[in-house]
Amino acid sequence: MHRYISKIVVFFIPLVILFYSEPVYLLIDSKYKEIVAGKEIYQSIKKSKQKGKQKKLILGDSVGKQLFSSTVHDDTFNSLACNQAISMAGHYFLLKNYLEAGNKIDTLYLVFMPLSFLNNLNQVYTFHYFLKPFYKDEYKPYLTQTVYNQVKKIPYYYLCREPYILTSNWAPQFVPDKSVDYTFLSPISIEYLKKIKSLSKSHHFKTIILPTPTIIDKKGIIDKMNRNEISLNGLSEEFENYFERIIYLDNNYFIDSVHLKSPKRYSMQYRNTWIK
Amino acid sequence: MVFNSLSFLLFFIVVFLIYYFPLKEKTSYQNWLLLLASYFFYGFAAWKMVPLLLIATTAFYFVGIAIYNAKSDKTANRITILGVVLGIGMLLYFKYLNFFIESFSTLFNDIGFHVSWSTFNIIIQLGISFFTFKLISYVIEIHRKHIKPCTNFVEFATYIAFFPTILSGPIDRPNNFIPQLQKKRAFDYNLAVDGSLQILCGLFKKMVIADNLATYVDKVWGNIDGASGSTLLIGAIFYSIQIYADFSGYTDMAIGVSKIFGFKITKNFDYPYFSRNVSEFWRKWHISLMDWLKEYVYISLGGNRVPKYRIIINTMVVFLVSGLWHGANWTFVCWGAYHAFLFIPLLLLNKNKMKTPVGNGRTFPDLKEFFQIMLTFLLISFGWIIFRADSLSQAFNYIYRLFNGSYSEFPELISNNFNLSLFCLLSVFLVAEWFGRDQQYAIAQLGVNWKKPLKYALYYAIIIAIFWFRGKGQEYIYFQF
Predict the structure, then answer these.
(1) I need a labelling partner for B233 at 20 to 30 A (CA). Which of A1, A220, B133, B368 fits?
(2) Per-residue pLDDT of chain A (276 residues; tens, 9 = 90+)
(3) How confident is the model at residue B415 (pLDDT cuts 50, 70, 90)?
(4) Does the beta-carbon distance from A19 to B193 stay under 8 Å?
(5) What letter would DSSP give residue A186?
C-alpha cells in the first residue's frame, strides 16, 4: 500500500506544480485582477487608493458604472462604481480607501438601482465578487458580525484566498437562503450606509443617493418596498427624493432588463440635473 | 457529497487511511468503518433519510433470518412474500403514492366523477430504488436457498448502505457482495491502480462529456418551440450521449472506489451504444437493474417456459416495471412501453441474442454492423426524448417538431455555440470507447504496455482535460431515481 500511496503522491506532484504555476504567476504579478470576471472591482479598489483632484466621488452598481465609468477620466468627479455584488460593505471599503489615501471630497454620490440595496451577501456571486477581493486581513477588522454570519453560510468561504481559486473564476455552486424580512434595505446595507454616514460627518461631505434608470416591469416590486426602512434607520436625508427620481423605462431600453442600451444619454441627464 | 467534489475527496482520504492503517486486515472493524462511513455519506445528502434506511435494513435483517429458520416451506413462503410486499410497499409509499393519487384523481375527473384528493407531503428518499431492490433480492435469494442469511448485522447493513453504490447503484446481489465483506481484505495494489484508473475514466465522462453536453441539451429543451428540426435532432443525440456519460461515469467512479477498498462490484455498462439491436442494448445498459428484473420479475412470472403470449406479457411487464422504477411519471411508463415494443418483435423472431460480439476481431465494424449500430442508436435516442421530457405533452411536442421542423438550416447548437474542443473531446471519447470495448472501462488496457513516460503522459492529458474542459457542474441524472 505504501507503494500505491507514494506512486499517487509522486504522480500528482508535477500536476500540482503545473496547476499552481499559473495561479502563482498571476498572483505574484497581480495579473489575475485584469483577467477574472468582475475585474472592474479590482480596478475600483486600485483607483480607490490613488490620489484624485476631483471633489465629487461616485460609488455605484454596474448600471451606475454604465452611467459613470470608472475607467474614463472626468474633471468633475471620480467614479469608483463597479458592481452591486460587492454589497454596501464593499462600497464602504472603496470609500474608506479613498479617504485614507488623503483625498478630500465635498459630495459623495451613491448611484444604485433600488434592488441593489437588497444585497445581504446572500447571492451566488458573493464568493467571487465580495469574498475574493475583500475577505482578507486588510478589511477583516471592518467587517461587522452580520457580514461574518453571512459569509459563514457560503460553502468553502475559507478557501477564497487560495491561489488557484483566487486567480480563477471558480466559485462554489449553492442555493443561497433568500428568505428575508426586509423589502428594501438589507441589514448589511443599513450597517454600512450608517458607516458611510458617519464618515461623511467626520470628513465633512454630503451624501446623495441616486437611482439608476429602471425597467418598468420592476415598478410593482419597487412600489411595494417599505420606505419606512429608510426613516427608521436615520437615512432620510441621504435617500431624499430617491424614489421620486427613478426613471422608469420599457424593456426596449435595456440589454438584459437591468443594463442600459444607451447609457450616455442618461449620463448627460444626470450631470445636468443632479451631479453638477 | 458527490464523487467529483472536494468534500468527497477529503472524506475518501480519511476513510481510506483509517481503513488500511489502524484497521489493516481487521475485517470486522473495517466493516464497522464502512458502515459508519456509508451512513455519514448517505446522511450528508439528507440526514432525514437515514432513519428509513436503518429501519428498513433492520426489518429485512430479521426477515432474512426468519425465512431461513422457518419450520416449513409454507411459512418461509409467507415470510418471503411479507418481505417483498414490505419492500414494494416502501417504494410505493415513498416514491409512487402521490403519483397514483394525482393520476387517479385526473382520471376520475376526466370521466365525470368530481374528486379532489390531496397528495401527501412525503420526503423523497434518495437512492430508495437502489437499496430497496437490494433488500428484496436478499430475501428472495435466502428463500431460493442460494444464500444463508447474514447473521452479522454490520455486514448486512454495510451491504445495503455501501457508500459507493447507495445513491446510483450498481445494484449488487447479496451473493456477490456479502461474501466479500466476510473475508479478509488486504490492500491489493493492482486492484487499487485499476480502480484509480476507472475513477479517472468516470471523472472524464461525467465532468467533461456529460456536464458540457448538459448545457447544450438544456438549451434545446428550454426552447423546443423555437428550435429547428435539425437542432432538436442534435439535442436528442447529445442527450443520449449525456445520459450515458453521466450514469456510466458515476458507475465507473463507484466501481473504482469500491476496488480501492478491495471490493469487486457488478458491471453496469458494456458499451451499450455499440449495440446492433435493442435487445443487445438492454444486455449492455444498466446491467445490474436488467439482471435484477430478469431474475426476480421475468423468471418469477415464468420466464421463457410459458406460451408465447405469456412471454410477450411478461416482457411487457418487465419493461413497464423498468420504466416505472425510474420515477413516478407517465413519461417513464411510456418509455418502458416503447422499448417493450422494440424488444418483443426481436424476441418473437428469436433475434434477441447476438452470436458474436460487435466488430468481432476487427478494427472497425463492417458496413452492416455500422448501419445496425446507427439505427439502434437512433431508436434509443428517440426513446430518450420521452424519458427526458417533464410530461407526455412535452415529449409529444418535441417529437412533433422533430419530424415537422426544418432541416434546411444548420443546427443552432453548432452554428451559434460551436465548441471545437468539446467536439474533439467527444470524438476522442467515442474512439476510446470503441477501441476499449472489450475492457471493463475504455482506458483499462490503454497504454498498459507503453513506456512509462508515454503512459503517464496519457494519464496527465486526461487529468488536464478534466480541469480545463470540465463543464458547469450538474447533478447526476440518476440521483433522482
Answers:
(1) B368
(2) 888 999 999 989 988 888 888 888 888 888 889 889 889 999 999 999 999 889 999 999 999 999 999 888 888 899 999 999 999 999 999 999 999 999 999 999 999 999 999 999 999 999 999 999 999 999 999 999 999 999 999 999 999 999 889 998 888 888 888 788 899 999 999 999 999 999 999 999 999 999 999 999 999 999 999 999 999 999 999 999 999 999 999 999 999 889 999 898 899 889 888 887
(3) low
(4) no
(5) -
Closest chain B CA to residue A155: B7
For B372, the enclosing helix (H) or strand (E) is helix B367-388
Are the Cβ atoms of A15 and B463 closer than 8 angstroms?
yes
Q: Residues B332-342: what's their mean pLDDT?
A: 96
Taking CA atoms, B344 is separated from B314, B316, B338, in Å, by: 10, 8, 10
Q: Distance between CA atoms of B429 and B464, rounded to whole angstroms?
A: 15
Taking an 8 Å cut-off on Cβ atoms, the answer to whether B189 and A8 are in contact is no
Task: Determine, for residues B189 and A3 on separate chains, whether the beta-carbon distance falls below 8 Å.
Answer: yes
Nearest CA in chain B to A7: B193
Which residues of chain B lie closer than 8 angstroms to A19, CB-CB? Answer: 467
Q: Where are the domains of chain B?
A: 6-186, 190-276+354-480
Percent of chain B scoring above 90 in pLDDT? 71
CA distances from B80 to B85, B90, B91, B175, B293 (A): 8, 15, 17, 17, 17
Residues of B labelled catalytic: 326
Q: Do B6 and A156 touch (CB under 8 A)?
A: yes
Count how many Cα atoms sit within 13 Å of the Cα of residue B289 in the half-sphere of its side chain.
24
Chain A residue numbers touching B196 (CB-CB < 8 A)? 8
Mark out the alpha helices in B405-438 (DSSP H runs).
412-417, 420-435
Which helix (H) or strand (E) segment holds residue A111: the answer is strand A107-112
ipTM of the modeled complex: 0.76
| Distance (Å, whole) CA A215 – CA A223 | 13
* Interchain CB contact of A3 with B (< 8 Å): yes
Q: How many CA atoms lie within 13 A of B221 on its CB side?
A: 20
pLDDT at B67: 96
How far is Cα B144 from Cα A14, in angstroms, rounded to an integer?
A: 54
With residues binned 3-state (H G I as helix, E B as strand, rest as coil), the percentages for chain B, rounded to 5, are 70, 0, 30
**SS3 state of residue B287:** helix
